[in-house]
What does this fold into?
Amino acid sequence: MTAESKHPFTTVIGLEVHVQLQTQTKLFCGCVTTFGSPPNTQVCPTCLGLPGSLPVMNRRAFDLSLRAALALNCKIASFTKWDRKNYFYPDLPKGYQISQFDLPFSYEGYLEVVDPKGAFEPRTVRIIRVHLEEDAGKSMHDETAGTADSRIDLNRTGTPLCEIVTEPDLRSPEEARAWLNELKLLLVYLGVSDCNMQEGSLRVDANVNLHIPQPDGRLAKTPIVEIKNMNSFRSVERALVYETERQWGEWQDTGAEIGSMPKQTRGWDDSAGVTRGQRHKEESSDYRYFPEPDLVPVTVSEEQVAAVRSTMGEPPALLRKTLAERWDIPAYDADVLVNQGPELVEYFEDLAKKVGEGKVASNWMQQDVLRMLNERGGHIADFPVQPTAVADIIGRVKKGDFDTGRGKEIFAAVLETGKPVDEVVAGMGIAAVDEDDLQKLCEELIAENPKIVADVKGGKEQAAGGLIGQAKRKNPNVNPGKVRALALELIRALP
Amino acid sequence: MPAQDNAEPTLTREDVVKVAMLARLALSDAELSSLTDELSQIVGLVSQLSELNTDDVEPLAHPLDSQNVFREDNPAPSLKTADALRCAPRHDGECFLVPAVLGESGSA
Amino acid sequence: MTLTTRSAAELATALQQGETTSVECTTAFLDRIEATNPTINAFLSIDRDGALAKAASVDAARAQGKSLGPLAGLPVAVKDVLCTTDQKTTCASKMLKTFEPPYDADVVRRLREADAVILGKTNMDEFAMGGSNENSAYGLVRNPWDTDRAPGGSSGGSAAAVAADMAPLAIGSDTGGSIRQPAGLCGITGLKPTYGRVSRRGLIAFSSSLDQIGPMARSAKECAMLLQTIAGHDSGDSTSINTPVPDYLTDLEKPLQGLRIGRVAAHFSEGLDPEVAEHVEQTFATYEAAGATIHEVELPHAAYGVPTYYLIAPSEASSNLARYDGAHYGHRWDGTPSDDQGINTFDSPLVEMYCRSRAEGFGPEVKRRIMLGTYALSAGYYDAYYAKALRVRRLIRNDFTQAFEKVDLIGGPVSATPAFKLGEKTDDPIAMYLVDLYTVGANLAGIGGISFPCGFTQSKLPIGFQLQGPALSEPLLLQAAHQYQQTTDWHLQRTTAIPS
It folds into this structure.
């Protein structure tokens, strides 16, 4: 249930997302951007902002950001330039950030989010602009160490970032979370960014306020609050839920409307579950933007745009449809698979091709592969069982070598031991049960279960199911279906 | 406010203090006084530009008319940490040390 | 033979022919520096050991017949605005008093690869801001022609070094005239190349869209020698021009055929010293006699050059110098409380550190320009000031483009007066800014300009003549200056104001 239905207002949410581009090196220099390295080991005169240092634009960063913008249905500027955003902060060694101000390379796009379960209406979020800029470093302050210093690590300075700014088109915290997931999926699919919030390669700030219809027909709006410091999509949702309630409470107390105070920034405290006001520094907003003299402008031709488009794969939204049609699987299945990312889709398609049945492959993916993956952790790229092995197991089930249940056990054992399917099957003593053995076993069961025989004879054929468990205990290799069929046949033949 | 017609633009001491804070300069009393005069004069000089009609003139930010200068995404050696920190006024062998940075990042 | 009075070209020949060694040369210049620097203060740091070691290695290589760079064994002085790994780089500021760059500027790298011997780092106006070299945190520089007078700036140290025979070759930088004007006031030749011709990597930035590094020496020929080494594309500088470097030395000797030189009547206004005007006119006559034709041209917006420059340069500087905040390098305030009632309240200890470090580290002119630039870029003023200046800049460039349709080069004064007295303009910033009157245009338009001696005043002060040419016209500029120097000997005159 959304806030909309609980309270008489509309929640209006806009997002500002920064994604680190998946380049090898920084935006303006050849330092690598590996996450988690020891402090100040990935720095050079340029990203340190040493006197006399100069920036040179990373071509791949620009190409990846073009890709992102095109995937977000943005218009691409034929002429774009770089600007300096000037402010003082220890994680910004030059005293300015090279960014884009009045002529960003892309603008006016959109990205739709659809909830397959229908929790909200499909929402198209308009994107105001996507621009390219450099990241700042990290400042670390250890309160417990008791020193009055902050430690500055500049490894991250100069990492290429795409800043994506949306219109305030989102209408609930749930939508916001879903949209972020869709954005992440899109950018992962395109190889633009790994969008890992834990590693800081995706960061979100949210702007939220409430629109409250008044009795006189006017729409009152609460002051916009910018929320920062949310470290996961779940935090974003929780923070927005909290902030919505907080603003509603404040509205009822004060009736303060937008324009009555400067835009507020509040930080999300995940453990306490609240947003807290941050000190508003008025003068810090005069960034004195001016064209970056050390970088020349960039022109983008139609041909270039077409070339970039041709290297882009299918975005998730399209892939869901394609997958469903290609393999004849339900939309729900396609959604689950696509949402796991391109590598898993690749795994699935390989499996489906070998198995020849999309739905069967999809079931195995969801119930077995994904389940194991989630249990063990890790990435599908490192998953020890190959589609070939899974297809082999599925094939044997279809042939009747063993039932599906057994097949899942075999799968688990292959995963566990790393042994080939043949070996595992043999090791488990799985062999086809020949007709004579099956006959003998069923005759035994019938002899041992007079009550069941009587029930079946009395018309309750489903009672034969009670024999299956016993059959498996006698010989785990029996096929339940065959046992049931043969048992029924034998019982019917009894006088 | 910037020059309007023939009015001589002057800066007040308050203007100078505001600019000094933006520029992170702890100006002394004497400097505040002299700069208020000097900057007012210099602003008078540069305001001569308002005499020119530039409505149809594009700004010239780069004297070269070049565009599209890129480098390839290939790693290059970074500095050793010791070299990066060598000229730091204060460091702990790994990081630069500055007076505590409290609260959120400087960028809004 | 007095090595220090030989030109670099002569020294190069002498070295090649074994008449002298690089160690001998270098020693001679080092001794000269030791004798004269206490008076002139052209050098901020002298690398005696390093220079002699390099000289010795060049001599050894030469003796073994190994191939050598084009400047092999020749001593060069480098303005302390360029990063050198083996010497401090201070920009004549307290802010960078102990700064040791971990990398060499591209120009320095080229000099080293050319086997030049770097004698030391020369004095300058702090962060290249000034026209008299009186803004150095390490003492002013004196003009070798009259030690009560300024050498010009900001490359005053490099100009004085060459003029006083402390170095046969020097590197300067020019943002609004800082090579050409001191060259003019010190009686030497100095060239500001076309913007982008020489890499700015490792040049400590003052105004990024105006800065250029260039050669300073006794003659155009030697400037050509230096330019040949330092010019060229650098992929590490996005504003570096990517066209081949011509052979400046060969082009020098080509006779001038049908050279059209522009003369701007407006240059000869009341502010122009009569003796300067006289020698400048005489120079036009000399060119005419040599076969050039003189044509009147106009640069209608030239009068707006100084205001335009003094908006663009300080604005860019205010941003370029933001990095000097005491956090990662440079001077940091030591925490001593201040009694002064000036700006005394700060948002946090960090902000106080920034403000006090910068207040202590920067001199008055630097502060003035940072303040001006910050103001010009600030909200509400950007359009009227900075943006406006960028538009006028285009008008100024258009003036040159149109003029160069009629003429090949534009000639004229480089400075309105000869060397002025020390202290004469230090109380009047605007008077100081106006010394750039004839030189800012080339920086704003991104074109090349050369200044060389064309005479002396009655009181034996050098007078400079400037030629400006279209983008990438260095060959013609050098050639025109060189041909003038073939038939005149102003450039060979030496000062007698200091002991020789």
Remarks:
- Chain C has a mean pLDDT of 96.
- The longest strand of chain C covers residues 448-456.
- Chain C has 16 helices and eleven strands.
- Chain C touches chain A through 47 residues (CB under 8 Å).
